[in-house]
Design brief:
mainly alpha; 13 helices
């Protein structure tokens, strides 16, 4: 494993160049540029604010930061999983030319998604400071390990979805449908505290995305740093998924090229 990670780091200029190329290609000749990545969560939050605060009897000043934090994190997760389906297919030429570690190519997807997540976090912090007050330096610094854990989680999803899509081309379509269903099973547009007596509320607690939403919402909405237990829970989820992804990539390192 140490040798493998060393090889990934040795080729860092290669995968960093791929990330820069993807970003330049995506926003070339664009008027707003990176701003387009922020338009979707902002627009969706504005639409939700027209309806849901009145049904749930939640003040708009409380609902906007809650919904925006959920949508920013959700965009990152979906970006890694759905866009990750093509992470090996679009890199076929590189895989055929040079036997680089396969872990490099999911980095291309997850780092690009992490860039947009960091931009969204910046806007999200400003919105939360305006509507909820400045949370403090300590809680804001707690977002740094949160971003690291989310990056590991996103890389693992990109690696797994990309591998599955090589063998089963319908993986992307299944992922899109599955995440549409998962969206309503994740407390993004509603709060877990609003469902204390619902018979399915226990199921939402087992949603792995809730662990990462808690790490983001605790400092920004409540002004408190997440507890050690909350970090450990999210770290366990990220580490377990990353271990599965690493095992799959290790097994397919020499075989994947024959299926592209």
């Amino acid at each position: 494993m140490t040798t493998y990670l060393t090889a990934v780091w040795r080729f860092r200029y290669f995968w960093m160049s791929l990330v820069r190329m993807d970003l330049r290609t995506r926003y070339r000749r664009s008027l707003l540029g990176v701003g387009w990545s922020l338009m979707q969560p902002l627009a969706m939050t504005a639409i939700f604010c027209l309806v849901f605060p009145f049904f749930m009897h939640v003040p708009v000043r409380e609902y906007v930061p809650h919904a925006l934090t959920g949508l920013v994190c959700w965009s990152f997760v979906v970006g890694c999983a759905v866009a990750g389906c093509h992470t090996f297919i679009i890199s076929e030429a590189y895989i055929r030319q040079c036997p680089l570690p396969l872990a490099i190519y999911p980095l291309r997807t997850s780092l690009g998604a992490l860039f947009h997540l960091a931009m969204g976090m910046g806007v999200l912090t400003v919105v939360c400071c305006v509507m909820r007050g400045f949370p403090g330096v300590g809680p804001l610094l707690s977002l740094v390990p949160t971003l690291i854990l989310m990056f590991v989680f996103g890389w693992a999803m990109a690696a797994l979805s990309g591998t599955f899509n090589v063998f089963f081309q319908d993986t992307q379509h299944l992922a899109e449908v599955g995440f549409q269903i998962l969206f309503y099973l994740t407390p993004i547009i509603y709060r877990l505290s609003d469902l204390p007596r619902h018979r399915l509320s226990w199921l939402l607690q087992w949603n792995p995305l809730v662990a990462f939403l808690t790490l983001v919402r605790a400092p920004l909405l409540d002004g408190t740093a997440p507890t050690t237990g909350q970090y450990l829970y999210a770290a366990t989820i990220a580490a377990a998924l990353a271990a599965v992804a690493a095992a799959v990539l290790g097994r397919m390192q020499k075989r994947l090229i024959f299926y592209l």
